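Sample pair:
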Amino acid sequence: MTTAGAAPGPGRLAIWCGWVLTVIAGATPLFAWLAPKGFAALVALGGLLTLPAVRITDEDRPGLIVLFAGLIWAAVSTTWSPFHPASAGNSGILKLALELPVFWSLICAARRADEPGKRRALAVFAWGFGIFGAILIAETATRGALYQSLRGVAYSPMRQDIAEAKLGHATFVMTALLPLVALGAPARLRPWLALAMVAGAGAAAIAFKSDAPVIALVLAPLVGLAAWRWPTALPRIMAVFAAAFFLAAPLLVWAVRHFADYGAIQSAIPLSYAERMGYWSHAIDWIRDKPLRGWGLDASRMFAPGIQLHPHDGALQVWLELGAVGAVALAAFWGVTLLRLARPRPAPAMAGTAACAAVYLLFGAINFGIWQEWWIALGVLIVALSALNQPSTAPHMVE
């Protein structure tokens, strides 16, 4: 028997979604530390377990329509791509087709989770990443001794330089999620947990030569503060900037090559970035050959030695593989997504999401292949964290 007029409690689905997100929150720091490329499996499992939570709102439709249209174009492009997967496990289009509904399911689960489940998941995220920050400080002091010992027990001994590179990779995950993870921490402990995250990520990034996460630790607070100060204008500026970058990326590389001494710049910068500049230069030459339709999905893998696996720039990879059609779809998706962050008044979740989005765009521009499963899954975790940081009654922010 219930009291008349009492508010109904959360349904079973909402409670279940909260617990699934809590488990993912606890596993995320472990994956970030020991197996970042396993994020795809973690997020996919969460999505499969919460499939009944899937909903599409009116605000969701524009972004999802763009994604679905892009998926169709990518599928069509496989008919002329020089890359032919040897098995289903190597099929980029098959992975993308499966990821869209499953990853979307986890985002919907984060939206529909009950309020206690949201708070619990955010607390687990914050504590986990605070501890992860302390672990990274210890790894920095010992040059990765703990990671190497665990790796040796589970698999086989790893070379020192490879272990350090793996730990450097972990700082990308930490800095990409940090603003929203720290925001969700219990209020009294938030400064201390955030300090542990920043100190760990910064120390490890510097020690293990991960330059982009160091930049991210400066970029994220600047974007977050700007979003708080200009909650309407800043998301719109980010949307225009992101769309313009995705559309003009080949032109930007061409302009530097045409008006500056490209070779001198390559010689003056660290080797890893010099190699990227080489990939970008080769990419725009091949883009010029097929600017409208591109070379086909996953074609980047076939351009060695000029390009190793992908151009290390998401915009150029889309131009190279899917042409102008794909670039327009990518620009439209990010434009729609970032515009949805605009608010008439400051909102902590919006500011944190803008900061994470800026970091994600930075890393995508200079580091990772755009179709890598773990990389897409990391973006999905950002969106899920954005939803967890909002009350259930608040309008949802991003796809």
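The two ends are 39 Å apart (CA to CA).
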